[in-house]
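Regression check, coenzyme A case 151:
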Amino acid sequence: MDAVYALIKEHPRELLPRAISDIAQNIDRIFVCEAGGRILGTASWQILPEIGRPKSPSIEIKSVSVTKRRRHKGVGTALIKAVIRHIRQYHPSQIVVLTFAPDFFRQFGFREVAKETLLPKLYMGCINCTKYDNPLTCPEIAMTLTLPSSR
Ligand SMILES: CC(C)(COP(=O)(O)OP(=O)(O)OC[C@H]1O[C@@H](n2cnc3c(N)ncnc32)[C@H](O)[C@@H]1OP(=O)(O)O)[C@@H](O)C(=O)NCCC(=O)NCCS
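Current build output:
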């Protein structure tokens, strides 16, 4: 938990800070990349019950962070692939990200969407944001990866 907390805190411009209690409560939805006893990167996911149908929900990937010294070595890619592989069991209709690194996510098939299409997420999640005063003008880019629904 401490390592995940520190990794997220390493990127105050790109990532929303998360309290240790939030990390603890969602620890089963957090992936890490570990090498030689050190945690080099992390990525979280959460179901967005406000968007989509229960049998094919939308799932958000968030808090994606790779420590600065270990960038561009495939850690971020490995984390995103592992999260996508894992969440497929929930048959998501789409995966959502809000990010400052659209080119990173584009290579997995994510495409930019208007924030208005994610209004319920913005209402439930972003309304508590302490960083930007308006979710529709916040500079993060909304992207989705649409998956064929098998249900
Ligand atoms: C985005 C991030 C997770 C990528 O991690 P990484 O381990 O360096 O990624 P990879 O090594 O798997 O990168 C593969 C490719 O993705 C692209 N890429 C990597 N980081 C990128 C970024 N910040 N912006 C755009 N494209 C990026 C590059 O094409 C890269 O290939 P290259 O190494 O040959 O240049 C990392 O830069 C990071 O922690 N950034 C700060 C936090 C953040 O912005 N998180 C995403 C928002 S949720």
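Comparison notes: The domain at 2-146 is CATH 3.40.630.30 (Aminopeptidase). Strands lie at 30-35, 38-53, 56-66, 94-99, 111-112, 141-146. No diff flagged against the previous build.
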